[in-house]
Amino acid sequence: MYKQVGMLAASSAALMQYGVAMAQTAPAQDDAAPTVVEVTGQLLGKGEARANSVIDEATIKAQPAGLDPLKLLSRVPGLQVSSSDALTGSFSMRLSMRGLNKEQIGVSVDGIPNGSTLSNGGTMPTRLLDPANLSRVEASQTAGDLGTPSNQALGGYLDFRTRDPSKQRGAEIELSGGNYGYHRGFVRIDTGKSASGTSAYIDYSQSGVRTWPGDESGKNHRRHADLRVLQDLGNGSSVRATVSYNKFSDNDYDAVALRAIAAPFYKATFEGNPDTDGLTDTWTGNPALDQNYRGTRGINSEDVLAHIDWTQRFGETGKFTLKPYIHTQEGNGWFYVPYRQLPADGKVYSAVAPGKAPTATVQECYANQYQRTATGALVPLAAVAFPAGVSAASLKAAGCPAAAKYAMNPQAAWGDREATTRRSDNDINRRGVLGEVAMTFGGNHRVRVGGWYEHIRRAKIRNWFGVTDPAAGSAYEESALYSITQDRHYRSNTAMVYAQDRMMFLDERLELDVGATYQRFRESYASPVEFAGERSLRVSSGLLPKLAALYRISDELEVFASGSKNFSAIPDSVFEGTAAVDARKGIQPETAIAKDIGLRWQRNGYGLGISAYDIDYRDRISIQNGNPNGDIFSRDATTTFANQGGISSRGIEITGRMTGAQYELYANYAFNRARYDADTPFEGIHAGDPVLGAPRHSAFAEAVWRPAQPWRLAVNAKYTGRAAGTYGDVVNTVITGGPATYPREYMPAYTVVGVAVSWRPRLGMTWLRDSEIAFNIDNAFDKRYLGGLGAELTTSNPLTSGRYFLGSPRTFFLTLRSRF
After folding, report:
1. Scanning 49, 344, 668, 707, which has its CA 20 to 30 A from the CA of 757?
2. Distance between CA atoms of residues 335 and 420, nearest Å
3. What are phi and psi of 392, to 5 degrees?
4. What is the pLDDT of residue 405?
């Protein structure tokens, strides 16, 4: 990885020098803007035989500089996107599409699969591209185009496309600032197209922002660079090579509860105070309090993505594409806890012997709290032995965990208060290739045959480091490693093949797409400190038919219908740690049957689209038993899984656009009825319950006015209806003195308003092609709302039921863009 980064930096310096030297004499860029008709057609998905929406480059450029590309999707009907700040977010970023979450949606960047979208141990698409280079986002709400590379796309697909090198040499800069310490700088140098057909660009950006609650002690920093070289081979053939590098660190936001009644058990509740997530900004020296200090939790990640896109035309209609790629990631997530989780055998690394259980651990919040042998092992007793004057209640009051079945030294022998930084290191190496051959036969049959193969090696290691001085801060040394409780290694292989015949009839007014996909997934898993040996699974999708039809009634009106069967490989959680040791034999992959039908009308700059859909998500992998307060990724997990139930999602979406010489109006509305279709008792789900985090009603509207050539003013509003936050009425078996049951929670409905003003001055300088000053306001009325649900954190237990993320507050942005 570091060799690749070094080569990228060297190339960056050379191209920077070249671009600056050429900027003074570069001719004006002749980038023709798309016509109003084309823009309206793209927005509605015109010409596609399935539900589809496109966000074009003009819309992208009107957003705040550096905006996470996922947040653009709030404009698309049926999609809900949020994070706890106006720009980005890792842990707090939430995405749902027609009732399915981000881990059930396929994502790619320039056609290259994004992989998992988990915040830690996965990759969000913003890490693989720079927002300033984004040219197009295509959202297929029901099913992606045949051959889209994903093994998690149960309910739709997202593809983010970036700009190619310019044909003319020059440079671009982007400078942006805002409140909460937001700052961003971006520079791009284009070489222009040479006589031999070669063009290239290199860019670099750096940005940062602080968290908004309290004293803004949390920070988010990002550095990103891209290098792309494009070789025109003539006759429509080309080769492009791209390398992207991204490094970021992030102190994100914590989940909150909704009800004030939950206050004793959560750091913060929305009803109690909607301006905080309960994390603190001041170090106290007391680990029980400082475990909530924002700087003690966060994520680091360093990603490199390199890929080649070779397109070769042959014959009159033939096309061959080949896309090899490699993606590497090194990162970690860290968390501060007010104790040491010590191994009972005194060893840092304790491999499990065949047929034996993993080594037990005990939590110690003061030094010398437990008795040890001369070898450092903890001595187990038949029952807990407390020293004089110490009880379980006093330990709890002191912020200590339960004593467990270990002898304790006299209290007078206890040492200083202890604390630990628990760091989860992850390493990913993805290598894959996509290939396709397409050709037209007989004038009306466009046949595509292709495949995708990907091999992934991943590691997740949970290390425990003793904090040097908890009274002074959370600093630790690498030499202070005292325990490794996870050493997880995964190897997975995905293979997919597909074929499609796109048939045209009735003078190309009728298009029929008949195709199918087959996918096979295999994974092996080992963690020597959790179990002996290796676990593995192998599943296949079976034949996944994908059918679609488009009929052009006239040049202005078309109707479409599509149906597809989609597949998701089995997630890691079903066989990690001590989970699902027995149940995994019977686990089957999740599938979904997706259908949609609709019509589109377009005349000049006016357009209307209406679509109805039905998604039948089957074989949902659900929790069956276990400790609801246990960590599913630690040794205390006794959870098992089974295929039980699913989700039924039905709805309708309406999109309209009107344009004139000085105005644009765009609006959409989505109705979604997403329900669980079977009981899953341990989770507290009953058939017919609403799906968590899926609002029934949502809408988006934007009005744009151009009073004069250099000016653009826009106002938009996003409405999100109330959505279920807990599975249902939960019987209270945990909280003494609490209510007999906790009723189902709903996240309140909300509307946020955005404002954008831009000015393109005509400076009359031949060397300056274009400049723009833009001012954006996100959440102009400073609405307090719950932006998303931490579904992966929620169980049917009242203590962990309903965990939400605060929505982003009012945020200002000022941006200068120039092209030379």
Report:
1. 668
2. 8
3. -60, -40
4. 80
pLDDT tens-digit map of 724-774: 998 888 777 777 777 788 888 899 999 999 999 999 887 766 667 789 999
Amino acid at 193: K
The first and second tokens of residue 349, run together, are 């690394």
Residue 165 — φ and ψ, nearest 5°? -60, 145
pLDDT class of 521 with cuts at 50, 70, 90: very high
Residue 190, φ and ψ in degrees, nearest 5:
-110, 135
- What whole-number distance in Å separates Cα of residue 468 and Cα of residue 271? 38
Distance, in Å, from the CA atom of 80 to the CA atom of 73, rounded to the nearest integer, reads 7
Residues 6+ apart with CB under 8 A from 537: 522, 523, 570, 575, 584, 587
Q: Using the predicted structure, report yes or no on whether residue 18 has a pLDDT greater than 90.
A: no
User: H-helix or E-strand containing 813?
Assistant: strand 811-819
Assigned CATH topology for domain 170-336+424-819: Maltoporin; Chain A (2.40.170)
| Residues whose CB falls within 8 Å of the CB of residue 7, separated by 6 or more in sequence, listed in order | 243
DSSP designation for 256: B
Of 558, 554, 560, the closest CA to residue 600 belongs to: 558
Residue 550 near residue 47, CB atoms below 8 Å = yes
Instruction: Provide the pLDDT for residue 30.
Output: 40
Cα–Cα dist 84/214, whole Å? 14
Please name the residues in contact with 375: beta carbons below 8 A apart, sequence gap of 6 or more: 346
Which tokens belong to 292?
């909530």
Angstrom CA distances, 779 to 83, 94, 283, 784, 812, stand at 13, 17, 31, 9, 9
Provide the pLDDT confidence category of residue 575 given band limits of 50, 70 and 90: low
pLDDT, greater one: 555 or 143: 555
Max intra-chain CA distance, the chain:
93
Mark 32-71 as b/e (b = at least 16 C-beta within 10 Å).
eeeebbebbbbbbbbebbbbbbbbbbebbbbbbbbbbbbb
415: burial class by Cβ within 10 Å (0-12, 13-18, 19+)? exposed
Of 109, 337, 128, nearest to 222 by C-alpha is 128
Q: How many CB atoms lie within 10 A of CB 658?
A: 16
For residue 802, which amino acid is it? G
User: Rounded CA gap, 431 and 455, in Å?
Assistant: 5
Nearest CA to 704 among 80, 131, 62, 45?
Answer: 62
Predicted local distance difference test score (pLDDT) of residue 37? 61
Rounded to an integer, what distance in angstroms lies between the CA atom of residue 265 and that of residue 263? Answer: 5
Where are the strands (E) in 636-784, listed by range? Answer: 640-643, 647-659, 663-676, 697-705, 711-720, 723-724, 730-731, 741-742, 746-747, 750-759, 770-778
CB of 358 within 8 A of CB of 529? yes
The answer to whether the beta carbons of residues 700 and 668 sit under 8 Å apart is yes
What does the domain layout of the chain look like in residue ranges? 2-162, 170-336+424-819
Instruction: For residue 146, give the amino acid letter.
Output: L
CATH architecture group of domain 2-162: Beta Complex (2.170)
Q: Is the pLDDT of residue 634 over 50?
A: no
- The confidence score (pLDDT) of residue 264 equals 62
Q: How many CB atoms lie within 10 A of CB 740?
A: 8
Q: How far is CA 684 from CA 40, 401, 630, 734, in A?
A: 45, 28, 17, 15
- State the first-to-last Cα distance of the chain, in angstroms, to the nearest integer: 33
SS3 614: strand
∠ Cα 714 719 724 (to 5°): 155
How far apart are the C-alpha atoms of 254 and 297, rounded to whole Å?
Answer: 10
Look at residue 21 and tell me whether its pLDDT is greater than 60: no
Q: Which residues contact 95 (CB under 8 A, 6 or more apart)?
A: 70, 73, 79, 80, 81, 101, 102, 105, 117
The first and second tokens of residue 487, run together, are 């050493």
How many residues appear in the chain?
820
User: Do residues 220 and 119 touch, judged by C-beta distance below 8 A?
Assistant: no
Angstrom distance (rounded) from CA 187 to CA 202: 8
Residue 367 half-sphere exposure toward CB, CA atoms < 13 A = 9
